[in-house]
Amino acid sequence: MKEKSFQPIQEIGFSSLIDKIKIFEGSSRKEVCKGIGDDASVQMVNETEALLTTSEMFLEGVHFDLTYHPLHHLGYKIVTAAVSDIYAMNGEPVQILTSIAIPNKYSVQMIEQFYRGVDAACKDYNCTLAGGDTTASHQFLAISVTAVGIAENNKIIHRNGAGKDDAICVTGDLGGALAGLRILMREKEYWKSNEEQQFQPDLQGFEYVVKRQLVPAARMDFIKVLKSATIKPTALIDLSQGLLADCKEIAVQSGWGVELFTPAVPISMETRKVADEMKEDVDKYAFYGGEDFEMLFTLKKEDVESFASIFDDFAVIGRMTENKNEFRINTGEGESIEIDI
After folding, report:
1. CA 173, CA 215: separation in Å to the nearest integer?
2. Given a cut of 50, is residue 1 above it in pLDDT?
3. CA–CA distance, 323 with 251 (Å, rounded to integer)
4. Is 264 helix (H, G, I), strand (E, B) or coil?
5. Treating both helix axes as pointing N-terminal to C-terminal, what angle do 207-214 and 176-194 enclose, rounded to 10 degrees?
6. Which helix (H) or strand (E) holds 147?
7. What is the pLDDT of residue 205?
């Protein structure tokens, strides 16, 4: 059959697109031992140390809406997203480079607000804002952020190390970022329909989830614990695409199947409140909502109890199974849902 000359990306999805472009690696360098396919690339510096590099892209109208996303919060969030990838390799961020394409509708003061947020995040994560590029844009604000980190060679954790029967674990709670977005979108629609000049959004009772959306925090505390722990996760990824998508990444790269237990997935009461108000399934917030920037990791089942004694902000939500084509969700109500892997 003749190959299509124009195939819409939505036919295969971005995950499959990445699989297609992974073959384009340029020249092979022995110093680069991990390229496309993990949270960050790995470049060996010497026998004991490696450089980790990752980048993120944010486009106005696609990844953020400045109707409800203050620029200083946006600056903080883009650094969090990049730093989270470094943490997901069990590394420490060292420097940030931010490139920005700015339309004429933005003022000097607005861009200063953005960089105030970048600066605050860099200080919180103990890394340097080391440069980037600034250029013009015809219509939309576009931002690229690159994080460079360091790690000990023997302590780097990849996505592909999970073993059969390993426990699947997550830090914190899930779905909060999507719940916050739903509240912000609700308030925007109310403002548009009422056209009030001095509109004040009603966020009372939803401060936690709104913060999860606007000013998320990367799990630096988790990585600090790993630094001194004798127990190490077998696989690790940050939750930026949603639980199901990121679980699939670990499963595919590790060569095992997945069984998740819906009742075990940690979801905050505020997230549940949002889902109730929107008349939506709260489990879908946790399964499909991205940008929580929690850590999804696997542990040998015999290590779970010991790890809980040194870090208690995590939950076991499933296990790796023998069938590599299996992705099963147990609802806890006698029902089992199979999804494609």
Report:
1. 15
2. no
3. 10
4. helix
5. 100
6. strand 142-152
7. 84
pLDDT given for residue 26 in this prediction = 79
What is the residue type of 130?
A: A
The 235-238 sheet, strands edge to edge: 235-238, 295-299, 167-171, 314-321, 257-261, 327-330, 336-338
- 101 Cβ partners below 8 Å, 6+ apart? 135, 136, 137, 141, 142, 143
Q: Tell me how far apart the alpha carbons of residues 290 and 7 are, in angstroms, rounded to a whole number.
A: 26
Placement of tokens 């939309």 in the chain: 140
Q: Which residue has the tokens 């940690």?
A: 266
Residue 178 token pair? 């999507």
Closest CA to 90 of 64, 47, 136, 52: 52
Mean pLDDT score, 166-185: 97
104-110 CB contacts, 8 Å cutoff, 24+ apart? 104/136, 106/141, 110/71
* CA angle 37–341–266, rounded 5-degree value: 85
The four Cα atoms 264, 270, 272, 277 give a dihedral, to 10 degrees, of -170
What's the average model confidence in pLDDT over 332-339? 84
Contacts for 223-232 with beta carbons within 8 Å, 24 or more apart?
223/87, 223/90, 223/91, 223/92, 225/310, 225/311, 226/90, 226/155, 229/307, 229/310, 229/311, 231/299, 231/303, 231/306, 231/307, 231/310, 232/90, 232/155, 232/157
Domains of the chain by start residue, with CATH: 9-155 (3.30.1330.10), 167-338 (3.90.650.10)
pLDDT recorded at residue 28 = 80
